[in-house]
Amino acid sequence: MSVGRIEHPRFEVGLNSFGEVATDGGRVLDDAETLRLLVEEARLAEAVGLDVFSVGEHYREGHNDSAAPVLLAAIATATRRIGLGTSVTVLSTNDPVRLYQEFSTLDAVSGGRAQIVLGRASAVESFALFGYDLADYERLFEEKLDLFLRLEREEEVTWSGTVRTPLTGQRLHPRMRPGGIPTWIGVGGSPDSVLRAARHGLPLMMAIIGGRPQRFARNVQLYLTALERFGRPALPIGQHSLGLVADTDEEAVETWWRYWQPVVEALAAERGFYAPDRERYEAELAHGALFVGSPETVARKIVQVARDLRLSRFDLKYDIMHLPREARARTIELLGREVAPRVRELLAAGRSGDLERA
Predict the structure, then answer these.
(1) Are 71 and 56 contacting, i.e. CB atoms less than 8 angstroms apart?
(2) Of 349, 329, 348, which Cα lies nearest the Cα of 337?
(3) Residues with Cβ < 8 Å from 186, sequence gap 6 or more?
(4) What is the per-residue pLDDT for 354?
(5) pLDDT higher for 296 or 271?
(6) Under 8 Å between Cβ of 336 and 45
(7) N or C: which end of the chain has fewer CB within 10 A?
(8) In 3D, which of 330, 342, 331 has the Cα closest to residue 302?
(9) What tens digit of pLDDT does each residue of 114-158 get?
(10) How far, rounded to the nearest angstrom, does the alpha carbon of residue 248 sit from its chain's CA centroid?
């Protein structure tokens, strides 16, 4: 069986939020205001034609995405069409039974719009918060993934493992749609995670937040080869990256630098990697994983990685600490009204051999 990129009729473009607090006229919004803003932004995302609105799961100062199913349910009542997902759900420190019930409920109240990206966690605050040992990092994820997928795919589940109490003939309610909701595996570069996604027959969502995205081409090929080896059909591949869209390249570049630089500087001190400087920032803009610029600039960069990495979906992580709400809104508007249609136009032109004229 030959495995390649799925030709979807519509390349999907979505948004990711980590619930990071915004500013309004220089005033930092409080947590409750930020959550209400996210509902407004999801409504705007739908209005401008974006495909998916996703939220993460973090337990850090300034982030308000710790209860994604609740937030997504609120968004479901304010929207009618847009897909509702997670940029990552930390399966290792969630209970698969409760997670199934939360997302089956979300899927029901939203009219079948729920989806989920499952990950092991790059930020590990949830382990201590919920009483888990980091030494069990791999075992927690592997066992809980097995249980969650069985709950999605089987009517009645009998299961036993080492990370929670066993189940015997358990049938959960509310029921998900047959086969479960769209469930992706989120990966940050680990080949083991790529193989795990292929083995379980799950789509691949790559979190690419720095460096040349094309370095992930090996993981893409590994995934496609593994799908073939496991006898799986071709499955979607997506990318999650950071960025901002503004009316001009200069406005976008200067705005993002003002708010991205202090965030990355703080992370660099915490995690021991380089502190950002302007030269490295500009290199990321030119060749790396920051999607910052005018609609045409961002669209062309998305098209390039979509072709290089065989993507069928691209999600932009648009919020960053203290970014003004008007800049967030403008990114959403331009991404939906100008970038996404341009991406699809360029991809279609490339398939027909007319990319240069486009």
Answers:
(1) no
(2) 329
(3) 87, 88, 117, 118, 119, 193, 205, 206, 207, 240
(4) 55
(5) 296
(6) yes
(7) N
(8) 342
(9) 999 999 877 889 999 999 998 999 999 999 999 999 999 999 999
(10) 26
Q: How many CA atoms lie within 13 A of 76 on its CB side?
A: 20
Task: Name residue, tokens 């591949």.
Answer: 237
**Tell me: the pLDDT tens digits for 30-50?**
999 999 999 999 999 999 999
> Six-digit token pair at 139?
């075992």
**C-alpha span between 241 and 301 (Å, rounded):** 12
pLDDT for the residue 9: 61
- How far apart (Å, rounded) are the C-alpha atoms in residues 240 and 258? 22
φ, ψ at 89 (rounded to 5°): -115, 125
Strand ranges inside the chain, DSSP E: 12-17, 23-24, 27-28, 52-55, 83-86, 89-90, 116-119, 157-159, 167-170, 183-187, 204-207, 237-245, 290-293, 313-317
Residue appearing with tokens 């949830």? 126
**Burial group, residue 292, by CB count within 10 angstroms (0-12, 13-18, 19+):** buried
Let me know: does 118 contact 145? Beta carbons within 8 Å.
Answer: yes
CA dihedral 291, 294, 299, 304 (to 10 degrees): -60
- What pLDDT, in 10s, does the model give residues 267-294? 888 777 777 889 999 999 999 999 999 9
Which pLDDT belongs to residue 7?
A: 42
- Can you spell out the DSSP letters for 112-179? S-B-EEEE--SS-HHHHHTT--GGGHHHHHHHHHHHHHHHHH-SSEEE--SSS--EEEE--SSPPSTT
Distance from C-alpha of 36 to C-alpha of 229, rounded to nearest angstrom: 46
The answer to whether the beta carbons of residues 89 and 116 sit under 8 Å apart is: yes
The region of weakest confidence among 164-173, 272-281, 297-306, 324-333 is 272-281
Gap between the Cα atoms of 152 and 345, Å rounded? 36
Could you tell me the two tokens for 318?
């648009």
Report d(CA 45, CA 222) in Å as an integer.
33
- Give the number of other CB atoms < 10 A from CB of residue 217: 14
User: Exposure of 201 by Cβ count < 10 A (0-12 exposed, 13-18 middle, 19+ buried)?
Assistant: middle
**pTM score of the predicted model:** 0.93
Q: Which tokens go with 171?
A: 């049938």
